[in-house]
Amino acid sequence: MSEHKIFSMPIAKVYSAYVAKAERKQRTQAEVDQIIEWLTGYDIDAMQRVLEQETDFRTFFDEAPVLNPNATLIKGVVCGIRVEDVEDPLMQKIRYLDKLIDELAKGKAMAKILRTG
Length: 117
Known about the structure:
Shape: globular
Largest sheet: 2 strands, antiparallel
Number of strands: 2
Distance between the termini: 41 Å
Radius of gyration: 13 Å
Helix content: 40-55%
């Protein structure tokens, strides 16, 4: 079976779409960055390097400082797929990120998005 093409896609291509989606809903790039840091451990400087180096999704998640242990609390549907049921571990991490950005764009409070309140 061939690998999904998103695995080799530079995250920079999707990152700009995440920011645009957030900004269309009066949210900010800083909030997108906060979500990414919560999920992966990449701080703003590390994230900037990832974007500049056009790191692909596989490498992005493989080299993430730490996947937040509360990521398993992310539930729901994104692109018609229930994130908690995704079998491929890498695809599930990508879907977690998609779901968090969707929640941001839908106006959810950051404490709820980050599973802290």
